[in-house]
Write a structure and sequence with these properties.
The two termini are 42 Å apart. By secondary structure, this protein is mainly α. 78% of the residues lie in helices and 0% in strands. Helix 5 crosses helix 13.
Length: 429
């Protein structure tokens, strides 16, 4: 006959189920060491789960033991708060190649920007020549110099792109190897208490962000900052009276960015954390398909998956809303900056028309440059969330055989086990 009831009711009935649990309790009791009663408190707290079935079988009460009532095998996934730490940034820069690689990339960015400004200034000099006066150089000379500067800019820019791509691939490979090495050396207790979705999330989405996006976002942000700096310098040189107002505007924009990035950074972390349960749920559904069908809980699992996906989509919508919030304010502040530079340019009648036209052109570009700088800068800082999460699993507690360096490869571990004899066993298990 099939026994039906709760766990406590089946134990109280004294049927086949109760006999099976008593046998399991007796087997567990036989395997206990005589000195287990004197185990220290931290050791008992590490593995509370295996002792719960025996304790439940020994008692017919439906209430769990008081010590295990609040115990959880799996804790909620935590996330960092505040700014990305300097240790996380340095970990990525070290994987990128360290200080030499950073200086090489920075030299390429500065050289590209100097050539870009030089080409624009030379074009202004060329168009500012008085056509009625005798020309010291022919138009072919000006065209040749402009073509040479533009060609050099393209060459430096192409070399810079190749360096960024190469160093980015290197950094992604190094961080992936560190993550994989740490996971393979972690004790089994880590995998028992960590949902698979959290590991998959770091090995897929976070690793993909580091491989494909982080180096490009950093390079784009640095180029945008240099372009914005050169634009402000040109406006300050041609129209120095507008410099104080522009500095005030830049300070306001920086305060606006600081207010925005604090919320955006945490929203990105929430999005990453909410993705792990979705992956865990899919993994559980794949591996437990037979059990799910046997108990007829397919509809419940679908509803659970939809709820998890909606939760993740809500954080994505929050990110998009924050970006729109920033865009509206950046456009408004940029329009004020453009208006101020244009008014000062018109008021200064002593300058050449070509120079004033160049300044006005740069003033019109400052809106796009400022918006792009702040937005790309925030994107680069958000992408560091992937490095932050990967670094969290790159420093997992390792088995003793890995931490003492005695057996780091499968061959070394096999040799260590064979040399230790029958009574040696593995350390750290």
């Amino acid at each position: 006959a099939v026994e039906v009831g709760s766990y406590s009711q089946l134990l109280a009935a004294g049927g086949a189920f109760a006999a099976l649990m008593k046998e399991a309790q007796a087997e567990d009791a036989e395997g206990l060491d005589s000195g287990s009663d004197t185990a220290s408190e931290p050791e008992q707290a590490e593995v509370p789960a295996p002792t719960q079935p025996a304790a439940a079988a020994a008692s017919t009460s439906s209430q769990p033991p008081a010590a295990a009532a609040g115990a959880k095998l799996t804790q909620h996934e935590s996330s960092a708060t505040g700014r990305v730490s300097a240790a996380v940034v340095w970990a990525y820069l070290s994987a990128l190649g360290g200080v030499p690689a950073l200086l090489l990339l920075l030299a390429g960015f500065v050289g590209t920007e100097l050539l870009r400004v030089g080409a624009t200034v030379w074009l202004s000099v060329w168009t500012g020549q008085d056509q009625a006066a005798p020309q010291a150089h022919s138009s072919l000379f000006y065209m040749g110099v402009y073509a040479a500067i533009s060609g050099a800019q393209l060459l430096v820019l192409q070399a810079n792109y190749l360096c960024v791509a190469g160093y980015g691939i290197k950094a992604g490979r190094v961080m992936h190897e560190q993550l994989l090495h740490s996971l393979l050396g972690a004790p089994m207790s880590f995998f028992h208490t960590t949902p698979t979705g959290r590991i998959i999330n770091r090995l897929t989405k976070d690793t993909s962000d580091i491989d494909r996006n982080l180096a490009g976002n950093l390079a784009f942000a640095l180029r945008a900052m240099l372009q914005l700096a050169s634009t402000v310098v040109l406006i300050a040189v041609g129209a120095p009276f507008s410099l104080p107002a522009l500095l005030v505007m830049m300070g306001v924009l920086w305060a606006l960015y600081s207010y925005f990035i604090a919320s955006m950074r945490q929203a990105k972390r929430l999005e990453a954390v909410s993705r792990s349960p979705v992956l865990s749920n899919v993994n559980e559904a794949i591996h437990g398909a037979a059990t799910i069908r046997a108990f007829g809980i397919t509809d419940w699992l679908i509803r659970r998956n939809m709820a998890l996906v909606n939760n993740n989509a809500a954080t994505t919508l929050l990110n998009q809303s924050l970006n729109r919030w920033l865009s509206v304010r950046l456009e408004g502040m940029g329009a004020l900056c453009t208006l101020l530079a244009a008014l000062v340019t018109v008021e200064q009648q002593s300058g050449q028309a070509a120079t004033m036209g160049l300044l006005l052109t740069y003033a019109l570009q400052i809106t796009a440059a400022t918006s792009m700088t702040l937005r790309v800068g925030s994107t680069a800082e958000q992408t560091f969330n992937a490095v932050e999460r990967v670094q969290e699993y790159c420093h997992l507690p390792q088995e003793l055989s890995k931490t003492d360096g005695s057996a780091n490869t499968p061959e070394q571990r096999a040799a260590a086990r064979s040399s230790s004899g029958s009574g040696g066993g593995r350390q750290g298990d």
